[in-house]
């Protein structure tokens, strides 16, 4: 399909169906249908939207019962539930970037799938390294997750990273070097900084800044997707006394242009909805004419990135 000069996209800002795989799939499909009805050709979801981000990890390091329930309601790539989402994308002729907890034989990973408008799975990648307390639940990715950009039926290359991967310089450079044009940035619920000793970099302002800077660095359109948490989620995961995700809100979805400018108006932090934008790729060409860190503004004779994109397995059989 030839490149289109303008593409309409949608970014989600919704509350997950916490710890319920079947309801999560149902809600995901409803959002996909709503995005397509609004004219979007691509819709992107937040980090671990299925079955919701495990917010309790920032309240207490161990909760075996909730962790077990979380694993039981995570989404396997080769499953009827994933095929339902793929079928929904195909019926609605829309590209879907899905953030989810991937279940692989009862080990779970923060994952992002890119589904084309015909339902084909273009890419499934995992967060390279779970962040801080996330490591109490989630495993690490392997080299194949460095291949995180794919050409889509809308004629544009789409790339994905999750949360604080946007603070990893080499990982960002790896993604940018694959010549992405639209970047799907998946985040959990994030709230404004309250002025205390907690990290500003974990706040709404800090996380939005990382996505905004990524847009400047990559000259891509960045779709910054977050989730909402209400009293339902707080009660489900008992996070009212926690460091993070302890009060209703968390929505901060936005779209940034390839020079870093904010293109969209925000929804209220506790409001569910879609944020739409029409992306004019002439703006990306204009931005790249000034700054292209993997093109005319690079020095690969002096600085370059080495990578290993092979998937590492826990067992290697040697034979004749």
From TrEMBL:
Residue ranges of domain CN hydrolase in the record: 7-281
Q: Give the E.C. number(s).
A: 3.5.5.1
Q: Does the keyword Phosphoprotein apply?
A: no
Q: Name one GO molecular function term.
A: nitrilase activity
* Alphabetical list of Pfam families matching this protein: CN_hydrolase
Q: Where is the active site?
A: 47
For this chain, the family text in UniProt reads: Belongs to the carbon-nitrogen hydrolase superfamily. Nitrilase family.
Protein name as it appears in the record: nitrilase
């Amino acid at each position: 399909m030839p490149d289109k000069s303008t593409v309409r996209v949608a970014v989600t800002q919704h509350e997950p169906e916490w710890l319920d795989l079947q309801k999560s799939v149902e809600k995901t499909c409803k959002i996909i249908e709503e995005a397509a009805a609004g004219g979007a050709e691509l819709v992107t979801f937040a980090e671990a939207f299925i079955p919701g981000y495990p917010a309790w990890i920032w309240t207490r390091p161990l909760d075996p019962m909730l962790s077990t329930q979380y694993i039981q309601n995570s989404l396997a790539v080769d499953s009827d539930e994933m095929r339902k989402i793929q079928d929904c994308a195909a019926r609605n002729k829309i590209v879907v970037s899905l953030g989810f907890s991937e279940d692989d034989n009862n080990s779970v990973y923060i994952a992002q799938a890119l589904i084309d408008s015909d339902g084909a799975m273009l890419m499934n990648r995992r967060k390279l390294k779970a962040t801080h307390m996330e490591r109490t639940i989630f495993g690490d990715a392997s080299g194949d997750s460095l291949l995180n950009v794919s050409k889509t039926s809308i004629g544009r290359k789409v790339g994905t990273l999750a949360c604080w991967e946007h603070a990893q310089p080499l990982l960002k450079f790896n993604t940018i070097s694959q010549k992405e044009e639209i970047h799907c940035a998946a985040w959990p619920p994030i709230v404004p900084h309250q002025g205390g000793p907690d990290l500003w970099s974990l706040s709404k302002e800090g996380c939005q800044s990382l996505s905004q800077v990524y847009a400047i660095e990559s000259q891509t359109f960045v779709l910054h997707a977050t989730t909402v948490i209400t009293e339902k989620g707080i009660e489900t995961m008992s996070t009212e006394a926690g460091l993070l995700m302890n009060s209703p809100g968390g929505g901060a979805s936005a779209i940034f242009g390839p020079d870093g400018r904010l293109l969209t108006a925000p929804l209220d932090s506790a409001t569910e909805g879609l944020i739409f934008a029409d992306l004019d790729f002439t703006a990306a060409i204009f931005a790249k004419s000034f700054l292209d860190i993997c093109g005319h503004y690079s020095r690969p004779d002096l600085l370059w990135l080495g990578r290993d994109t092979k998937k590492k397995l826990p067992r290697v059989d040697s034979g004749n």
